[in-house]
Design goal:
By secondary structure, the protein is α+β, with helices and mostly antiparallel strands. Helix content is 31%, strand content 14%. Strand 5 and strand 6 form a beta hairpin.
Length: 203
């Protein structure tokens, strides 16, 4: 039943966001949303989604089939922002045909990601040499504007494994090579910690 409710919610979110493409119209604090255009009534697969990168290009999650994936929500003005360096190290060390890091900048927590997509891209490149895929600025917290992929990541009724809460910037989700939800880690968990490195290695 809840799957049907969320499917309808996805459609409602898409209808509202496609017109204005924002969830906050207050100038630089505006959150630019790159929502999927369509969903199946049973949007229960990680591969069902698509979004948009910082560069405005479409990103299809179906292209991640066969890869282990770390999904992380990021911010440029957070105490955990230095984790970008470790995320890049993780990607440089283990990123290949088998492992991928995907970043989702978000302004949801104390407005710690105030910049535009272009400003975020420049910040990541200049300060941390980020080369892993970064998505457009995205709402990740529970609520009316939560991106559908984050609804899937945080609701057991959708991912089939576990409920989880995005509690702050740099929360981490692990998805296996079959698109199955594996684990959720808090901001405190280092990207180069044993649990995540072991996952990146496929162990």
């Amino acid at each position: 039943m809840r799957k049907a409710v969320y499917a309808l919610a996805f459609i409602g979110v898409l209808t509202g966001c496609n017109e204005a493409n924002t969830v906050n119209e207050n100038g630089p604090d505006r959150v630019e949303v790159a929502m999927n255009e369509t969903y199946a009534e049973e949007a229960n697969s990680f591969y069902d989604f698509k979004t948009e990168t910082l560069m405005g290009e479409e990103f299809f999650f179906s292209n991640l089939k066969g890869k282990r994936v770390l999904v992380v929500n990021t911010a440029s003005k957070c105490g955990y922002t230095p984790q970008y360096e470790q995320l890049q190290e993780l990607y440089d060390t283990y990123g290949s045909e088998d492992f991928m890091v995907i970043g989702f900048p978000s302004n949801d927590f104390l407005k710690q990601e105030p910049g535009t997509n272009e400003e975020i891209a420049e910040f990541c490149k200049k300060n941390f040499g980020v080369t892993f895929p970064m998505m457009a600025k995205t709402p990740v917290k529970e609520g009316d504007h939560q991106h559908p992929v984050y609804a899937w990541l945080t609701h057991k009724d959708l991912n089939g494994v576990e409920d989880a809460k995005v509690s702050w910037n740099f929360n981490k989700f692990l998805i296996d090579e079959n698109g199955k939800w594996v684990a959720h880690y808090s901001s405190k968990t280092s990207p180069m910690g044993e649990e995540i490195v072991s996952f990146a290695k496929g162990k």
